[in-house]
Input
Amino acid sequence: MKHFLKYTAVLVILAVTVVSCKKEFTERESLDSTTIDNYYNTAEEVRGLTSTLYGLPWAGYENRAMDAIAEVMSGNEYAGGNDDPPFSNFSVASTSVRLADAWKAFYKIGGWTSTYMNGLELKKSKGGDASFLEPAIAECHFFKGTVYFYIARIWGDAPIVNDPGGTILSGNFNIPRYYKKDVLRFALEELKKAEAGLPEADVPGRVTKYSAKGMMAKLYLYRKDYDSAKAKALEVMNSAKYDLITDYKGMFTSSTFNNNKESLFSTQHQLTQNPWGSANQLQPDRGPSNLQTAEANMWELYIPSMDIQSAFESGDLRKSGTIMQHGWSYPSWKPKGSNPAYNAFMANGYKYDTLQPVGDGGQKNSTHANIVKYVVGPGSGFGSEGVIGMNTGINTMMLRYSDILLIYAEATLGTAASTSDATALAAFNKVRARAGLLNKTVLTLDDILKERRVEFAFEGDYWYDITRQGFAKAKQIIEAQNRGTYTYPNYVTFQESYMQLPIPAGEVLQDPELGKPPVAYYQ
Output
């Protein structure tokens, strides 16, 4: 933790100063009194500061760690290579690069928000304009609360670093793990502050009061505080500010849908290679190798598991917006290569075909399927939007309105065996209606969990849905999954120790307190 706190402090200094294209911003060494006096005098300067929280710092989690933790481990994805199979067979070591990347990303965001808030509060105390300083501080609370919610769900007992600068100055780097319940409480308190200070509405892409309410609803559901989850979800529903969009597949295959009316919170991306990590880099890890072109990289590191392919009901329109299987097509995508047979096969648009010979346009991997979500195509020269190698400009949706609807339904069910509540059914069936499926007249927990799985497949959510059910239910779900390949089915035995992941070994080495039993954060 010691080396990471220093790493965070340096990044915070850089992030705080890089809020303008002016040279003097990038050359400042610290957020000192002179900086506070001379800058953050306009809403544009302050919003430039907080805009740094929306994209780049999420890259460490979003790029591969999200897939490994939330999708491979949950049984939604199959992965080869060396780094990801341990997440499928639950042999994840504390030396895992994916764990370290996620840890660094979340504590980096936590550190940035703390320093930003300290600076903005200081500016306000010096007579700065509260009309734009206070909403910016609330934005920071939203991001801090959100990342600590992730930390609690992944690691359980974990450190809380509320003031990294103060910790560094104190010289005491022996930070303990705190109880999971305290980490969740801390996250919730941050989100409450965000709710209180964020505006009712903002420009597309910026979080609002309802983004905070929605994330609180999700956290309350995780804690099984059903009344609070239901109340917060209903506040979002009654706001009339959000709705489902008609084109489910379009949300995940085109940046024209960025910041749509269904998105409560999305990480923001731009089509660029510089700085690295500013663009969305999910496409190359998910896209089929036969869609690679001179513009677009595709190496299908993550592919749909056999189990998720069988999870969709017959006629579910979401399947084609989630999974590529034999017969799937995208007519406007027209990839080309050096092979005449391939070019002839793709002349009328991209076709996913497991019978055509590989190399001549055929596609056949270990599970005979590929992921659709966040694959925007082969590049502007081949019929899709622009792509630069690994990089695309599509945002990643972290909280959607469909989640709010399903949270409301589940919170209404609570601990009951079933519910026929009219409002809960209306919310649940609204999600199913977009998928082209028949209404349900009674809801059970299994109905809701199944709906959540297919609605949010490959969006980094299902592992948390599984583990929040408790060990017995998680064991039942995971041990029923085929986690193997098309040719070789595989089933695993699930143990309670798998419910939380180990803290990265490098952090424990720097801070031995992390290897000790957790303590209380709140006295």
About this structure: The radius of gyration is 23 Å. Residues 475 and 494 are 5 Å apart (CA to CA).
